[in-house]
Design a protein that fits this description.
alpha+beta, Arc Repressor Mutant, subunit A, 2 domains, two-stranded antiparallel ribbon, 10 helices, about 45% helix, about 20% strand
């Protein structure tokens, strides 16, 4: 049996709490300086430099020099996905009686962010709960059904559920934060596309966090509110 040679090497790097904390601090796709990362994870600048050098050498981080300072970001979206998956596993462990504290998502991602191709975070979770309460959606385990009432409500904002049939089963996404279940799949992707095109959400350069405009917050909160 053949084994992927990089798995154990990467696992060894992530086994160090300080290195995994540095990756988590960059999970939003943003860029942070070495000094800031050192402060966030509670190590000296020299220790942070050593950790960052190992993560960069392994291809997990990219850096750029700005004068005498270095700034770091995740090397690829797949790195973030791997870290998020490990956080999800840690949540399962806690659910089975383990006591370790779980990392909190970065503040700017908790409200609204990209979760794969759809909207995640508190805003998405609140909208999902309203859609259930308004009987726009019905949940069957991890799957979702759009009700006739929901089809009419979605059509009123320009989303036509008939087109979803060819794009697979609609599912509930628990998200990488594990705290705000929301609509994933084709419905979730259609919602975030609509919100972006309407100017209700704005992308942040180099980040998966999304800015919610004042008009957008009002409009999204009014969806499925009756």
């Amino acid at each position: 049996m053949e084994y992927a040679p990089g798995i154990s090497q990467i696992a060894t790097l992530l086994a160090d709490p300080k290195r995994s904390a540095m990756l988590w601090a960059l999970i939003d796709g943003g860029t942070r300086g070495a000094e800031e990362l050192a402060r966030l994870v509670g190590v000296t600048p020299s220790s942070a430099s050593a950790h960052l050098a190992r993560l960069s050498s392994a291809g997990l981080l990219k850096f750029e020099a700005r004068g005498r300072k270095r700034f770091f970001r995740l090397a690829a979206p797949e790195v973030g996905a791997a870290v998020e998956a490990l956080v999800s596993v840690s949540r399962v462990r806690v659910g089975r009686g383990h006591e370790e504290a779980l990392p909190q998502p970065p503040a700017d991602m908790r409200r609204a962010c990209r979760c794969g191709e759809h909207l995640g975070g508190e805003l998405a979770g609140q909208l999902y709960q309203r859609m259930l309460a308004a009987e726009w959606l019905q949940q069957r385990g991890s799957q979702l059904d759009i009700t006739p009432k929901g089809a009419l409500g979605l059509a009123a904002i320009g989303i036509y559920s008939q087109a979803f049939a060819a794009r697979g089963v609609l599912q509930v996404c628990t998200g990488w934060d594990g705290e705000h279940p929301h609509a994933g799949g084709a419905l979730g992707a259609s919602l975030v596309t609509l919100f972006m095109q309407s100017g209700w959400l704005r992308a942040r350069e180099g980040s998966r966090a999304l800015q919610v405009t004042v008009a957008g917050l009002r409009a999204i909160r009014n969806l499925a509110s009756q």
